[in-house]
Design a protein that fits this description.
The protein is of the alpha+beta class. The chain has eight helices and 14 strands.
């Protein structure tokens, strides 16, 4: 009798749990503006709400994501919308507004999962559910304001200058000897790494490393010319959140591959790359260096600053 009671108890417990938490696996699909999404962690259903990996769903909707280790919270930014949430807490902040979620963010197998409807609608998207196909349908305007991109600098393009001019520019800015020598690697590797404009990539490396002086949390021995983070990401002020490369060639190759993926270069994402954050969800998100703002870095001005303060002076030193 005791064994039967135990079995019934376990059965009822499993039944109860399955009503609140069940993984949907590949049976649930997600489409954004009609395009199927492919996430590293399968969608989950918790309390009848579809949950998706936080960084990937925010990135898919054009928001940048950072983890504030001190506060133990996720911060996502898209244009003028700032969302702050903590795994396990129902209260979240959207700008100055406090919102109570029915289902908070949770951590499953090391991945923070968030309710897709809340995230999408907070960023101005529309969400619907197709019961027949088990598909989450999200629609939103990729650009919140009209932008003239005709004068932008394509990431996939040829350089207007050669290695020598790049090195002279770097030297005139007081660059380190190591940084000056890196120019040769950028021009040497571009053909095998998506055809990225080496001048643009080298200018970005100047911005990220302070012309090779590495005054931030990433030191020269990281051999990381672009501030690349590890696969899991992390806070900007955490040295452990940034990738250490074995060689400068690996670091430059990772930088070029990451830019090529953002630009949607043919053959990307690659099966073999030194880029630790080679996520398919970012493919085609930034075709120009100006569009790296809000993508490579949270600031919407990042790309324009890169071009105005670094790339243009490199290309047109007389101006």
């Amino acid at each position: 009798m005791r064994n039967i009671t135990t079995i019934l108890f376990v059965f009822l417990l499993l039944l109860l749990l399955s009503s609140n938490y069940a993984f949907a696996g590949s049976s649930i699909a997600v489409k954004i503006n009609g395009e199927a999404q492919d996430y590293t962690c399968l969608p989950q259903i918790i309390d009848n709400r579809v949950m998706l990996p936080v960084r990937e769903i925010f990135n898919s909707l054009g928001a940048s994501v950072t983890w504030e280790s001190k506060e133990k919270r996720v911060v996502a930014i898209r244009d003028n919308t700032v969302i702050k949430l903590k795994p396990g807490y129902k209260e979240v902040k959207v700008n100055s507004d406090k919102i109570i979620l029915q289902q908070p963010a949770v951590i499953i197998k090391g991945k923070t999962m968030v309710p897709v409807r809340f995230v999408s609608e907070s960023l101005g998207a529309k969400v619907s559910w197709n019961e027949n196909t088990k598909t989450v349908l999200i629609s939103f305007d990729k650009l919140t304001k009209e932008q003239d991109k005709s004068n932008n600098t394509p990431i996939i393009s040829s350089a207007k200058i050669g290695v020598k001019q790049a090195q002279q520019w770097a030297k005139s800015r007081g660059a380190s000897d190591v940084f000056i020598e890196l120019a040769e690697l950028y021009w040497e590797l571009v053909d095998s790494h998506g055809g990225v404009n080496p001048a643009g990539a080298y200018a970005q490396a100047a911005k990220e490393t302070g012309f090779g002086k590495f005054n931030g949390v990433v030191s020269e021995n990281y051999k990381n010319p672009c501030g690349m983070k590890i696969h899991e990401g992390g806070a900007n002020n955490d040295p452990g959140a940034h990738q250490k490369f074995n060689t400068w060639e690996d670091g430059v190759a990772a930088h070029l591959d990451h830019l090529a993926l953002y630009a949607g270069a043919p053959g990307y994402p690659k099966n073999v790359t030194t880029d630790p954050r080679h996520f398919s969800v970012i493919k085609g998100r930034a075709s120009s260096f100006e569009e790296l703002g809000g993508n490579w870095a949270p600031s919407g001005e990042y790309g324009e600053s890169l071009v105005k303060r670094y790339l243009n002076p490199l290309l047109y030193p007389e101006n």
